[in-house]
Design brief:
By secondary structure, the chain is an all-alpha fold. It folds into two domains: 152 residues, no CATH class; 157 residues. Helices cover 68% and strands 0% of the residues. The protein has eleven helices and no strands. Helix 1 runs antiparallel to helix 6, helix 1 packs antiparallel against helix 10 and helix 5 packs antiparallel against helix 6.
Length: 341
């Protein structure tokens, strides 16, 4: 790809931004899995860049943490050293986010001043920057939901925070692949089919955040059945279309499973009825590999009792799956690729 890139500095900028965002998603996932997300109870946009440098400052942070429900109901009696462990995860997550925004915006300003970015793509990159700002606010808005009366953050805000990260990543990765193309989107059947696959994967990622936020994975740690039933016996079907069902951990886990089955079915369907018929086989194999890896990781995570390392790999598997889907979308979107194949 680098060989066909007309502006290598833009390539390296977008590649670095994508890799840093992948790292940030990974660290964010581990921050939640280690129970570290509420360890810093203030936003501290600028002052939070420096960590505590004295025992007095550590004591101040710890005192603030002791005032929230998570400490009082779950971590009561935690030592300062134990607090430092969860603090560093959340601190690194926040600092890495600030660093990523700088890595993105400083070169962007330079490229705009030097007129290295085409006008029709300028707005796209500016929208990404605005989404970064929105993501920073959403991160704090999410944390705030777990500081007053709850011991955990709102699963709705968690889902919004994670989905924004994946939307930003999808836009940046698409820009990385598609920058040299004049057309942003070619309206053909294959492009739409893969676009909807990307959309379904994003919906599944959002539902995965619901599953995590409600700790739904702690229920029914069996597969393919939910204990002894294909559908959990505590799900009331007359309430299944109610908004309250989004707060039901059993229903959320069930739908997370069914969305996975749907994505598998949809991928097989469009492969045989369109891509195989049009001899577009090789790139589509990437999607099958990514789906297979993600399904296996999801099942192993559930059966292991939510092993932290498997859960982290499962989250990163979603990054791999969305990346493969976007790559195939790029492949189908570029007429030259279809001619070459």
């Amino acid at each position: 790809m680098l060989q066909i890139y007309q502006k290598k500095d833009i390539f390296y900028w977008l590649l670095t931004s994508c890799l840093l965002l992948i790292l940030l998603i990974w660290v964010g996932g581990l921050t939640r899995l280690t129970g570290s997300g509420l360890s810093i109870t203030e936003w501290e946009i600028f002052s939070g860049i420096l960590p505590p440098l004295s025992e007095k400052r550590w004591g101040e942070y710890f005192k603030l943490y002791k005032q929230i429900p998570e400490y009082q109901e779950i971590n009561y009696g935690m030592s300062l050293n134990e607090f430092k462990f969860i603090f560093w995860w959340e601190y690194f997550h926040r600092v890495l986010a600030r660093f990523l925004v700088l890595i993105y915006i400083v070169p962007l300003i330079y490229f705009l001043v030097k007129k290295k970015i085409e006008k029709n793509k300028t707005y796209f990159f500016l929208i990404i920057f605005l989404l970064f700002l929105l993501q920073g606010f959403m991160g704090w808005y999410m944390v705030k939901s777990g500081l007053v009366s709850e011991t955990d953050v709102s699963h709705y805000r968690l889902a919004a925070h994670l989905s924004l990260a994946f939307i930003i990543y999808s836009m940046m990765f698409w820009s990385l692949l598609n920058y040299n193309n004049k057309l942003l989107f070619n309206f053909r059947t294959g492009t739409f089919l893969i676009f909807f696959l990307v959309l379904f994967v994003l919906i599944q990622i959002i539902w995965g955040a619901f599953t995590s936020g409600l700790n739904a994975g702690l229920l029914y740690q069996t597969w393919p059945l939910m204990n002894d039933n294909f559908i959990a016996d505590d799900i009331v079907f007359k309430n299944i279309f109610s908004l309250m069902s989004f707060n039901n951990a059993s229903y959320v886990q069930l739908l997370h499973r069914f969305l996975a089955y749907f994505i598998i079915f949809y991928s097989i369907l469009i492969y045989f009825f369109y891509f195989k018929k049009n001899n577009i086989i090789k790139p589509f194999r990437l999607i099958f590999v990514a789906i297979g890896i993600q399904v296996v990781l999801g099942i192993l995570t559930l059966l292991s009792g939510l092993n932290m390392y498997l859960a982290s790999l499962h989250q990163m598997g979603s990054v791999f799956l969305i990346s493969c889907s976007i790559y195939v979308l790029f492949y189908i979107n570029n007429p030259q690729n279809l001619i070459d194949s």
